[in-house]
Amino acid sequence: MHRRTLRLPPWLIGIAALPLLGGSFPDGCHDMSCEERVAAANDYVSSVVAENLDCRTDSDCTTVGIGTDCMGMCPVPVSVDGVDEVLAAVAYANATWCENYIEDGCPYATPSCAAFDPVCENGQCVAAFY
Question: Distance between CA atoms of 115 and 130, rounded to whole angstroms?
């Protein structure tokens, strides 16, 4: 089986769904639009993922789900040692930007995800897509 390795920022995997995220909060009850909330949550989680990619061998890498209550996202490759930090970032994003997201009238989208194996390449966990 031939694998192709493609290094993509985690946020890019779900970027195709962003046009679906129109709208803003009703009655001006919040300062951030739906789009701003999604962007803030995704930027934060993606920055934590980017800090947790170091590896030496393929066994140092795994996948972790980074979907928030604002938007579904495809799993991404991360270092085994960084899983807890990434999951904590998702929880923080949910509490900070995504709490009551759907109840506030914001749309939720989930992208289709391509299958991959997490592999270590040049000291970084990356996705080797099938």
Answer: 6
